[in-house]
Amino acid sequence: MEATFTNEFTMSASDESSVNLSVSGDCAEGSIIVAIIMPDGKQLSEVVLDENGSLNWRKNFEAGENNGWKNGKWVFKIRAKSATGNVRISLNSN
User: Fold this and answer.
1) What are the pLDDT digits (tens) for 17-34?
2) Could you give all domains of the chain from N- to C-terminal order, each with its CATH number?
3) Angle value at C-alpha 45, between 63 and 37, nearest 5 degrees
4) d(CA 25, CA 53)
5) What is the pLDDT of residues 50-70, one digit of tens each?
């Protein structure tokens, strides 16, 4: 069944040593777009899944002086347009 929708999810990262983000999935028809917004409000990436195949996107941030912005609320905005498929979003902080 094809679906067209927009949704938003939030996940939080605490003052841990690292943050690991992952977006994966596949889309047989249409498209699924996941915008990843960092705690400082800037868009980190926009991941596009479409009928061209499956996708695995990962990003890791280690502890350091210049990346305190990684701690806080991460926003994942999902837009599906006439889509048949699935998407998995993961955030781990440790």
Assistant:
1) 788 999 999 999 999 999
2) 3-84 (2.60.40)
3) 70
4) 9
5) 998 889 999 998 866 566 667
